[in-house]
Specification:
Blueprint lengths: L4 H22 L4 H21 L9 H27 L2 H8 L3 H11 L6 H17 L1
Helix pairs in contact: 2-3, 3-4
Length: 135
């Protein structure tokens, strides 16, 4: 088995639970409060990972900048997701927002000059069709 596959499968399960738990939380609290407690959960996992290893923080200006931008994009995306999940059907919102790799793929093509092969090109077309069908 590939070394990354178990982590990817557990990640898939974790994100599935994230989608369910976010909607359940929105049944009881507003999206801003849910974001705060979700962020506390992220911090908890970060501290557990930090505490469970001999971790030394890497210091590189560009790496720190992009890591910070990652956190900003993630938090903003989560907040907007929670707003959509609060107002819409979770099955539709999760499925639509789960198409985010399309954005990464297109940005990687533009900024990192990563090639898009025929299979990925077809995936992009099908993803766009899926967005149309879900909206």
């Amino acid at each position: 088995m590939t070394h990354w596959l178990p982590a990817a499968i557990l990640s898939l399960l974790s994100f599935g639970l994230w989608g369910l738990f976010s909607k359940l939380s929105l049944n009881y609290i507003d999206s801003r409060s849910a974001l705060i407690f979700q962020t506390a959960g992220v911090l908890l996992i970060g501290l557990l990972v930090f505490g469970a290893s001999n971790f030394k923080v890497a210091m590189h200006g560009k790496g720190l900048l992009f890591a910070l931008l990652t956190g900003i994009a993630y938090s903003l995306g989560c907040y907007l997701y929670l707003i959509a999940a609060d107002k819409g059907k979770i099955s539709t919102v999760v499925t639509l927002t789960a198409l985010y790799p399309l954005i990464t793929l297109l940005l990687s093509f533009v900024f990192l000059q990563e090639a898009i092969n025929l299979k990925q090109g077809l995936g992009i077309i099908f993803a766009l069709i899926a967005i149309y069908l879900f909206c």
